Protein 1
Amino acid sequence: MGVQGKGRISALLTVFTIALLVASCGNKRSMKTAVAPAAALPQPVARTLQPLPMRPLSAKLQAMRERAMQRASALRGLEWTADVGMTELSGWEYGQRASEMAQVLGGDDLRALGRLASAGGALPEGVDLAQLAASFAAVSAGAVYSPLDHQVILVDKFKGDSLLTHEFTHALQDQHFDLLKLLVQRPYNFDRTEAMFSVVEGDAVNVQRRDEEGETYARKPLDDIARSEGARLGSYREDVGSFFPKLLTETFIFRYRDGARFIEAVRRRGGERAVDDLFTNPPASSEQILHPEKYFQSEAAREVQLDESLFAANGWKLAASTPLGEIGVRGLLMEGVGDDEAVRAAAGWGGDRAYLFERAGATPLFVWKTVWDKQTDAQEFFRAYTSLQNKRQGAQVGVNSSASESQAIWREAERTTIAWISNDTVIIVRGAEADAGTALEFAKR
């Protein structure tokens, strides 16, 4: 995917990875050992979509296609192994296609992860995440590469610009590294998937910008690259992004802004072959994208797990679980605190995992365990999360503190939220009042 000027954003058409408020991009128009839930076990990708209509391209579009293929190959240093077609769809056709893609590539998983987000308070109750994903893609679409169809799709009378070089870079990635295999991995991991998406997007942005700016791009300070991409996406954040949760828009922007900075850092260190290596030895977390030195040093996240057997013994069934990562924490906090404060509060992330437990006839139970690099980092996150909850639910109804731990409590309708901190660990629990306290005790173990 990529960005051009104020308005054009292209998209890699893998709607599945919009799971848990992550969306496919497009063109803005004015148990000590965790047990994976059944929905997250490896399954083959279903191929039930009808073939795309192949419409003759105008001479102008055909010339643009040939130029984009040549430039993408030359700049990326990869040869074409097969031809790549290009076709045009109307906005309505693309919207329908996006909806079908969401179902084919994981509608059930999206719904389970949507329930997790709702249980955690990040989405309204009853939101169908598969349809939210499709709606986001449809409202944003301009030019996309579809790895299911191995085609570049032009949406709604695409006029043409350097985004085609960007899209054909995705086609090259697919031919050499198999994008579906990289992006649709089981068990699903939000943080890992966002890190992989930032590699895919950052690589294509890098090729697009070098096509546009030539050698000037290679001399830009890395932070200027991130600022430039952020500025290009500013109008998107204010317009289309304003209709969607900030967790969705921030992770979307992260792929371009921080992905572009990360890829250029890697390219300057080891050239195009080092970028190739990212597809076989990808960053393990969004933290490594945001802080490239942590990728170079192979600094891994701390493993976080609950003893799921304690919940199972009380009749709870694990419905979904995933790490949110530094970028997920940042996007979530942005709903209640300023952007700069959210960035600072997320920066000390050491590891996390969010869980959704369900039981017949009971209010769903959300448990989120986070660990931080230092105690002061945990305290900063705890303060920011408290501000978020105060904005969502009003003042706390309970505060308990001792020399070694603190907790805050909020109540709304049929749900109680508890935020607990001790040393470098913060745990968030949300569920029925009768269950929340017990779940917190289980999560502490």
Protein 2
Amino acid sequence: MRRAALLVAGVALGACGTSATPTRSPAAAPSPSSPPATAESAFAPQPPAPATRETRLIARMLPRVVAARGLQAKRPVPGLLLDRAALIAQVKEHVSRELPPEAIRNEGLSLQLFGFVPTEFDYEAAQYRLLEDQLAGFYEPSDGTMYMASDLGDQEAEATLAHELVHALQDGRWNLESRSKYVPGDGDRSEAVSALAEGDATSAMFDVLIASSPRGGTKSALDVPDDVFADQIRGGMDQGPGAGSPHVMRTSLAAPYIYGTLFVHALRRRGGWAAVDEAWDEPPTTTEQILHVEKWLAHEPPLVMAAPPFATLGGGWKVADEDTEGELGTRLAFEEWTDPTMAASVSADWGADRGVLVTSGDRAAYAWRLRYDPAASNDSRAARALRAIKHGAMGPAKATDDAFICRERGDRGPIAIARSGSDLVFVFGPARLTPGKWTSAGDCALARKWTREIAAARP
């Protein structure tokens, strides 16, 4: 689900794994709607001759990226090669500066209550291990520097430079640092902007690499079939040491690159790179707009959704975190319970959602309310989603009927899902977070009462 990308989202506008190197296809011509800048216009007056390997690499690659993407380089981009440990240390410094520590802890705790990661699990350390496996380099907006792993081969270094230098061009035009600020409770909008940034950089990177193919030609990233492209990115996440990470962490890390690129490609097919520039000028506000470009074109807003109440749990409970998953986060969560095709189908027509993590002493619980767009068919959409989850991988249910399913878990408390018209209500827990051994602090009777409280509340 989207929340698993929160740690990475702190640097997602600059960080990208490039272990899935694109297939080299025939060359691409620059989009006629966005004439390429020349090296002379981008770099006049010429800087002194680069003295280090990284500055030489950047000096060679930047004019190619400028030409492919059609954005001017407003300033030189300094580069620094780092070993993997130093590269991750740089990312950690960025995250500590941009994110409060409790945001990472709450994210991991939420995923534990969902059942997507183990209870005895160092989520933050696992995120960094996965990122270290995938990360080849990143552009840091705060200092305008390109950081790159020093152990990359020529092809991977070329792909990394092409991708990250697009971020440098984005930063010069649209100020990535201001757009990537962490705002509590605004996760879906942040993920949408991240997807735009990564999709833009990935699409332009493909163009640069295709243009350097010995076969040449007039093809571009748009000629790579969407399913082939998506499989390449997913395949990269399923290789190497990171392949042992929980599935939700890998899919969340890949999601902005896959769906952001498909969004950018849809725009490029409509109006070239100029259409992508327009998306930056008025960026998508939800991941629903990323997944369905026509919803961005129509400026379709989300419905209003309040956080689920939790009076049923009794006194002493307080909100630890509150956020929106969005359609993309909903799809990724559903993929943990059913197959990807079904997950995409039953997360479509997303209208709004809101989740809340609550705690009381050593107890924790999570509630999530999802609403489909208002239409006669969407009561059946909610019913279909409930059936898909029921027959998926959630596990045997203790209590079940046409509008409610619940399974009791000895370590995390009950997991229950209820349908109320075009809404789905999910509750996870409460659980008692005993060090070394979590235990349930509720049952399906409590879960049914809680889902009814949420369904009856004003949305």
Protein 3
Amino acid sequence: MTFEILSRFLQKETKVNTETLRSFLATQHAADIAQFLNEYDVSLDWSVLSLLNLKRQAEVFSYLDRGRQTDLARCAPPNQFVAVFTAMDPDDRVDLFNALSEDEQKALLPALSQVERDDLQHLAAYKEGTAGAIMTSDYAALSPYLSVQQALNKLRRKAFNKESVNRIYILDDDHKLLGSVSLQALIFAAPTTPLQHIMVPETYAVHVDEKQENVAGKIARYDEPALPVIDAEGRIVGIVTHDDALDVITEAATKDFHKAGSIGTLAESIERAPIALLYRARVFWLVLLVFGNIFSGAGIVHFEALISAHMGLLFFLPLLIASGGNAGSQASTLTVRAMATGEVQLKHWGHLLSREVLVAGLLGLTMAAAIYGISAWRGGLDIALVVSVAMMIIVLVGSLIGLALPFVLTRIGLDPATASGPLVTSLADIAGVLIYFSTAQAFLF
């Protein structure tokens, strides 16, 4: 059985047995159901969600796009939405809460219990982009004075529905983090062993105000399913799980891709984003780079007499300009990626520059040799010499622009991802025009 049965149910083409549909949905992952629902009008979602039990409704709801979640929140019967909202994991719940309008938030809060309301407002208070903003308060914690048997009994009673129990955090009476113990260690330890004897005191913890990108990087580096989040006094306030870290990494990669293409921030997916938003996200850099490329035209006009005397030079202009832009984009992409992952820092500028001169020089020499034959055939030996020398210089300069620009932007406090794509290409184009015709003038006049 496939999702075709669900499609027939939504489109009302044929009568579908609801029990058969419930049985089918019970075998599907919540993410797959959510992805399927994203393809249909939002008004149909509740008809499918109502076929699931409350826990499954919350799971599917959490996988829906954020914009779709808010749309569903506005069209659902209040009691139905509140039930699903309270069944969601705390971190997913607060993300949706923050996406609602202020009036919608005020209308929702009275429907929650005091404990749920306090937890929600506590999590929502942390600054966006920090560990506190992506953590969950749903974690397992134990006292160091419990025995292994007592700990397992307590986990069975109170932690069966926790988001993560792979690692249990050991806290003192003031809720300060002492260490942690893995579930595996609990299972294999002797029942009478105190937890303080088997816990790991060196637990990797992150501060509540630490940047979420740093937190995601630590989860990847230490290969941990979750990291505890502590406040200034060392008290645990939540955990950041690996799935939240993956969301952060995905969001950061998306932003870098947009910046690499000189595109502004998109709050919604490209499918849901309004035309006006897509226009505003792209127009600034495109208009700015139009005026920047005027310099390329000015360079061509400056060498008008040279071009008139050697029209064959124009044949190779697009090839040389594109080569410089391509080399620059490659160098920029490598540099930005290395800076984003922490492989290189501003202090490494000099070392990378010397290496790039060597690499770009070899690339330029190889590309010059590759183009020499066709340029000699098309324009003669003089033109071939000009094109080959210009190619070497243009590739070298383009590569150095691509390498240097991320460091320059970082030095002045801007995001180095902005250096990729159109910006590097435009600068390399301007430099390429001037280098090409200056080389031609030096060799032919």
Protein 4
Amino acid sequence: MNFAHHQIAEGVDLYLCETDKFATVTVKVFIQDSLALETAAANALIPLVLIQGTKSYPTRVELVQKMENLYGAAFWTDVEKIGERQILEFYFDVAAPHLIPNGRQVLREGLAAFGELITDPLAEGGAFHRDFFHKEQANLAKMVAGIINDKQAYAVWQAVKAMCKGEPYGLYKYGEREQIEKLEPEAVYAHYQELLQSNPIAIFVVGQSLEELPELIGAWPWRRKALKELPPVSVKEEVREQEIIETQDVHQAVLVMGYRTAQRYLSPDYYGLLVANGILGAFPHSKLFVNVREKASLAYYVDSSLEGSKGLLTVTAGIAPQSYGQAVEIIRRQVAELQYGTISDDELNRTKIGLISGIRKMLDDPAAVIDRNLIGLVHKELRSPQMVMERIAAVTKEQVQKAAQGLQLDTVYCLSGPKGEA
């Protein structure tokens, strides 16, 4: 599925994917900003405040009722983190016009309301609606503080925070609680106006009969200035391995091992790295699952994940506290096997099949069709699913080995119990 590009305004790009595969028209709007301590909390709070009401529908109830009257149109907002970019995300989904009565009018009304929510927010005296603002501010602060109750998510976050100390990627995508609590509605509103006027904005649409979309979205009240250039991702020049043991009252320890990679999304060997991560820990046939969980019986779960924009590979395992040393050793050994080129034909082929199957499965979900473009959007290079599948299929053992040789262990973090041996 390919996207046709239209420029709506300076730095506002519209991407249309015309297809009759789905029964909906799905729209996502992404506003990019640099991930920074000064703005992370504000950027995380803005989508939560915006969704509470608009000028035409000044309460959440009225906005929801409007969407229900449009044959159950759906909308939500969030914030994403891709490398060292923080991305405000807005989602709208409505029945395809040809499937409902007055379908064209429904689409027009829905897009008008959605556009108002984003580009012309409800305000009072040059500030966000204060009741909405303070309510969502408290909710966001509570949510960020509550991450400690999800031990796996907390451990991964603490490992990344330690691994990327002093780097923008070390910031949580929802900001720090202390920063959230300091926010004021006037300053956050002014910051959002600056985002709307100067930051890169991309709009993706997947559905059928989209010929009106450039005109309809172009009619939103854009007030653009010169486009702001966002800085590229930072690269750590020297990697020194560190070990961190954190003790809490937990029965199951969480082990996180963070590796720096020599490849990122724009690197020639990126797909070798993608396959290397798959062979290491993305599937039930992967080295970590087979050797750490099945053979050694050391882990309740174990997997690896790749952040291709920043260039980080993270291994996560739930283990008994006393198994820490043995688990770390076996994980190191599996990475070393990749680096030595100890890769079977079965591992390589099953991994490539698994990655390609995942892409094909994604093509059955319009939101996923859009989301897969986020990393390409950040790096200004969108890649079609067909291109990606072809590149994965062409990866050789030698390319996997070369990519794996660029892995450097940066951080070993373990969240363990007070009496654990870790």
